[in-house]
Amino acid sequence: MYVAAERGDKRELGRMLQLVLGCAVNCDEQHEYIRRIMNMEEAVQHDVMKAIQEVSYVYEPSSCFFP
Hints:
Layout: H1 2-7, H2 10-24, H3 30-38, H4 42-58
Helix pairs in contact: 2-4
């Protein structure tokens, strides 16, 4: 994590953010995180939703990454 930040690797930082968002909306406290997302500006909500969908697709059991 720190290496991506130190190097300023935007792709890696974005991926890390996606993973954190994916965890947030799937944890026991998901309702609180979703509520906070819903209080953001609509454009930000859209970007957050897109990021969550992208990471959710990759880690679904039916995706090509899991035989």
